[in-house]
Design a protein that fits this description.
The complex is a heterodimer. Chain A is an alpha/beta fold. Helix content of chain A is about 40%, strand content about 10%. In chain A, helix 7 links the parallel strand 2 and strand 3. Classes of the chains: A alpha/beta, B alpha+beta. Chains A and B meet through helix 7, strand 3, strand 5, strand 8 and helix 13 of A and helix 2, helix 4, helix 5 and helix 6 of B.
Chain lengths: ~425, ~180
């Protein structure tokens, strides 16, 4: 029997006008914030801890650990920062959430701000997302007018302000410390992390306690408060460490690409069915489970729990990531797809550290050479060697993420590389039919 | 020649008020400057931003050149930006870019001789589930086809520029703060 797909975030996704305050409130909107504001901050963090919520942006770090590291007073200003710099290829969930449910995000931010004792929140939205930005800003303005934001909110004596901040086209700014640099008006380059530097929860933006959470993580908080942490933690059919639901953007060669809220641990074959299965008349060749940095997965096994633990255990990829599931059928030229990704990471490398900056430059050149028919057999060893020089040695996760699609595609589709090297083309895919 | 009007400066001051430091307003200020200067940032624009925010001009230049959406050269009136990343690629983005190039008689990255159109390859637009996707100005066109391109070029030819992006003047004012 298929897993029952509980809808928490997307429950009211298709209600007409749910992006407006009146409709949102009519569907019990802001009730969880009204509850949160009467709660002790630590009680909210405890609920989040019990719920087992892990960051929905990609790293899957337990949210409560971040929040608990905050100073337990309001002596200095705390900042709650929302990462809406969604740029991971294959990921489109935050855009949809901000377009369709901006008030859910605002309410999530408010509940989170109570928990971490922050009076100010910045929502960092990527530069291309003008529509979501307008949608969120409009919701913020409505929330000010309704008294959910501003001074002495709901008579609590607490002030809450939320600002939007528009990025300007840099994938790297999705990295937590680079995002904070960018928010402070600097180039979006990553900074030293603990233990070499203090936690952002102690000294983050403007050297004050700060935390960066993904849009979806913040938007999940009202559901956790509504159900209670214990009840939320009962949702999920896979690993005991993967609880609740997650938004997946399913794209590529499927019949019904789209954004779906899926219970964590649902078998991968069912996830595929939810998106209508591989497009008619074709079969699965490979897929990327959670955004391009996770790497390529083999077409088998299909029946494993699709969650934080199940994916790396069963597919040799990095894991669930941001939930950007890309499906590729047998017409796909995996070498060409990898080449495209290498060029993407090469373009987006911020240039701070040598392994990533130089390594990706070399990789891009080698892939270009193989694609143009000038490849040599030793190029494959050279690619491995460069990956080895980047792996674990780059300053932030961009370099690490860049080489996973390279290593996994080489492991699974070495013959396609050799085909390019020996024949100047990919004899394993009918590239002429791409997009057919 | 300085182009910032009193209204521009009022908008910049409202942005600065959102942050603890004036430097933090640099990214939004550059967006405003790009709009005032017609879609790109000549050195004078960066200098005006530096002067108003009180940050070194070198910092402004460093930031402006780091981010791809700040244009360092004049841009076409209508920029057709087509996503070339994987989800769009396997759904025919390369073919769409080729079609657009042939139709306009230019290569990706170039603009037509009258400055009316340009076609550009861009990275993931976050529209993977409706691929292939493209963007003109700040508007997305998803599940794009050759007909989408035909229609856009025919309709936009006589329309005012959409290259100024994002339209900061359309930004809703923040409530009380």
């Amino acid at each position: 029997m298929p897993v029952e797909q509980t809808q928490l975030l997307y429950r009211h996704r298709d209600v007409p006008g749910i992006n407006r305050l009146d409709t949102y409130v009519a569907h019990c909107g802001y009730e969880q914030f009204r509850k949160a504001i009467t709660m002790e901050p630590d009680a909210i963090i405890e609920e989040v801890k019990v719920s087992g919520l892990r960051g929905r942006g990609g790293a899957g770090f337990p949210t409560h650990i971040k929040w608990n590291a905050f100073p337990k007073n309001r002596d200095v200003e705390h900042y709650f920062i929302v990462n809406a710099d969604e740029g991971e290829p294959g990921t489109a969930k935050d855009r949809d959430l901000m377009n369709a449910l901006p008030h859910l995000l605002v309410e999530g931010c408010l509940c989170s701000m109570v928990a971490v004792r922050a009076a100010k929140c910045y929502i960092y939205i990527r530069g291309e997302y003008v529509e979501p930005w307008k949608s969120v800003q409009k919701a913020i303005n409505e929330a000010y007018a309704a008294g959910f934001l501003g001074k002495n909110v709901l008579g609590s004596g607490l002030d809450f302000d939320i600002y939007t901040h528009l990025g300007a086209g840099a994938y790297e700014c999705g990295e937590e410390s680079a995002l904070m640099s960018s928010l402070m008006g600097e180039r979006g380059m990553p900074r030293l992390k603990p233990p070499a530097a203090p936690l952002p929860m102690i000294s983050g933006v403007w050297k004050r306690p700060s935390v960066v959470n993904n849009v979806e993580t913040a938007a999940t908080i009202p559901a956790i408060l509504e159900l209670g942490g214990a009840k939320y933690s009962e949702i999920g059919v896979g690993s005991p460490r993967s609880r609740g639901t997650k938004l997946f953007s399913i794209s590529g060669h499927v019949n019904k690409p789209g954004i779906y809220e899926i219970v964590l641990g649902t078998p991968f074959s069912e996830v595929l069915e939810i998106a209508g299965g591989v497009r008619d008349g074709h079969k699965l060749k490979t897929y990327i489970p959670g955004g391009s940095s996770m790497g390529f997965a083999p077409p088998t096994p299909l029946d494993y729990p699709f969650d934080y633990e199940g994916i790396p255990q069963n597919t040799q990829t990095l894991g669930l990531g941001s939930g950007g599931l890309m499906i590729f059928d047998e017409t796909t030229d995996v070498f060409k797809v990898t080449h495209r990704l290498v060029d993407f990471y090469h373009h987006e490398s911020c240039g701070k550290c040598t392994p990533c900056r130089e390594g990706l430059d070399w990789l891009s050149k080698i892939y270009g050479r193989i694609a143009s028919g000038g490849g040599r057999e030793q190029d494959i060893d050279l690619i491995w060697d460069i990956c080895d020089s980047i792996r674990g040695k780059s300053f932030c996760a961009l370099g690490e993420g860049a080489i996973w699609p390279v290593m996994t595609s080489l492991r699974l589709f070495r013959h396609e590389y050799l085909s390019y090297i020996h024949h100047g083309r990919n004899t394993y895919s009918d590239a002429g039919q791409l997009g057919a | 020649m300085a182009k910032f009007t009193d209204d521009t400066k009022r908008r910049l001051d409202a942005l600065i008020a959102r942050y603890p430091t004036s430097k933090a307003a640099l990214l939004p200020a550059l967006w405003v400057a790009q709009e005032v200067y017609g879609g790109w940032l000549p050195p004078e624009a960066m200098q005006e931003v530096a002067d108003h925010l009180g940050v070194p001009a070198s910092d402004v230049a460093g930031v402006a050149t780091f981010y791809t959406m700040y244009n360092k050269r004049p841009v076409a009136n209508h920029r057709i930006e087509i996503c070339q990343n994987v989800a769009c690629m396997v759904n025919g983005a390369d073919e769409l870019i080729g079609y657009c190039e042939r139709k306009l008689g230019i290569h990706a990255g170039e603009m037509t001789s009258d400055g009316g159109f340009s076609v550009e390859r861009v990275e993931c637009l976050g529209a993977c589930c409706h691929a292939p996707a493209l963007m003109v100005g700040s508007t997305y066109y998803e599940n794009a086809t050759e007909q989408t391109i035909d229609k856009l070029i025919a309709e936009l030819g006589n329309m005012p520029s959409e290259s100024v992006r994002p339209p900061q003047s359309q930004m809703p004012e923040q409530g009380e703060f």
